Amino acid sequence: MDLSKEIEIAKNARKNAHSPYGNYYVGCALKASSGKIYSGCNVENHGIQGICAERVAFVKAISEGERSFEHIVVCGGSSDKLDDCLPCGYCRQFMSEFVDEKFRVYALSENDKIEEYSMEDLLPHGFKF
């Protein structure tokens, strides 16, 4: 699978992250089944109400009517390098509401190394009604 477009979008979104406290900058690219790609970046604030890149992308997509998703590419790290970066527990649970077993999370790290995960890998016992 060619993820080059999503990688570029995620890296560019990361440049818009607002992380003056944690100094950890995350960007992502969420591909909807419609083919449209939604970007997201993390946004911190003085309180505890910051939001992660993954939820930003999902909320943008959902607010525009999307309900079916293929995959997400996530990249993050300090301002000058990429680390291994996976969605936090809150994001994993949030995403699980809107994806099926075919959905994949691609984590991008240094030298454009990509690791692939299913939601079952990341959230084996997620909360479901």
The structural class is alpha+beta
Q: How many β-strands, per DSSP?
A: 5
Oligomeric nature of the chains: single chain
- CATH class category label: Alpha Beta
> What share of residues are in beta strands?
25-35%
List low-pLDDT spans.
none
Integer average pLDDT: 95
Rg measurement, Å: 14 Å
Series of secondary-structure elements, N-terminal to C-terminal:
HEEHEHEEH
What do these coordinates show?
It is a single chain. The protein is an alpha+beta fold and 129 residues long. The protein has one domain (4-122): 3-Layer(aba) Sandwich (Cytidine Deaminase, domain 2), CATH 3.40.140. The chain is built from four helices and five strands, in the order H-E-E-H-E-H-E-E-H. The protein has helices spanning 4-14, 53-63, 89-96, 119-122, and strands at 25-32, 37-41, 69-77, 104-109, 113-118. A five-stranded mixed sheet has the order 2-1-3-4-5, sandwiched between helices. The longest helix is centred in the N-terminal third of the chain and has 11 residues, at 4-14.
A few lines on this structure:
This protein is an alpha+beta fold and 129 residues long. The protein is 26% helix and 26% strand.
